[in-house]
Amino acid sequence: ERNQADVSEAKSGRTDLIFLIRFRHCCLLRNQRCLLAYLYDRLLRIRALRWEYGSVLPNTIQFHMSAEEVEWFNRYKKSLATYMRSVGGEEGLDLTQDVKPPKSLYIEVRCLRDYGEFEIDDGTTVLLKKNSQHFLPRWKCEQLIRQGVLEHILS
């Protein structure tokens, strides 16, 4: 407001205020750039939270977010889900599954309970019985590992 008043006075003939007006304007632009950089950094961190925690954020994290940030997170989550459904064929492709590339495509697993026959993409079937061990493709086993049917054996 003070800058606007000084601009009005400068237009009426007080040229000694021009340097002060420019200085204030540069300060305002600097503060605006700092604020935009801060907000952009927060958005990058919120985007990283989606990849780290999944589609549902813990309440402790959501408590520290503004309503606009929660809305942005939800829009990003929906956009990412739409994209993952559009690639990878009928089932879609879960990009959040392996954030770090796996060391090997096949893993050794132990069956924790009787599951029955399990078909792999090449057409072979494996009988998953309790305490049996198998060497299977990682991406086919991850869902069963999360369900508690298989256990990844680390050598």
UniProtKB/TrEMBL annotation:
The lineage of its organism: Eukaryota, Metazoa, Chordata, Craniata, Vertebrata. Belongs to the GINS1/PSF1 family. GO terms for biological process: DNA strand elongation involved in mitotic DNA replication. Residues 103-154 form the DNA replication complex GINS protein PSF1 C-terminal domain. CDD domains: GINS_A_psf1, GINS_B_Psf1. This is DNA replication complex GINS protein PSF1. It is found in: Nucleus. Residues 16-87 form the GINS subunit domain. Keywords: DNA replication, Nucleus.
